[in-house]
Design brief:
The protein is mainly alpha-helical. The chain contains five helices and no strands. The protein is globular, with a radius of gyration of 17 Å.
Length: 148
Amino acid sequence: MDIIIWIFTLLGSFAFMEFIAWFTHKYIMHGPLWVLHKDHHKKDHDSWFERNDSFFLIYAIISMIFVTLYIYKDFWLGLPIGIGIFLYGLTYFLVHDIFIHQRFKIFRKTNNRYARGIRRAHKIHHKKINKEDGECFGMLWVPRKYFK
């Protein structure tokens, strides 16, 4: 029974991160931490790194805190929560930074209905280069109208 709770905790953590990413993007990145996020919408530097990459570190630290709680405080759900957050971050990196923004030149020829839809939705989001109207979609869910 413990393994079932562990697996559901990991999957639940992964799924909950989709909400956290949406919420953080809309209300934090396009709010008080716009100073870190704005270079993602309008590149104002020559570096490969963006100030926006700081958010990866924030989520990585939160993931590590849960793993640390598992190791040192015997919080047995800390490990699946930490792994769920990590796996979401990895998936986000693969989909958002590699697939959509092509920060590494792979997956360029991927062309299916889901791929076109997620790229289309993200392009529409990036047309807005200001702090206001920071609405976005989740990484894994996109409204049907983008899947043509």
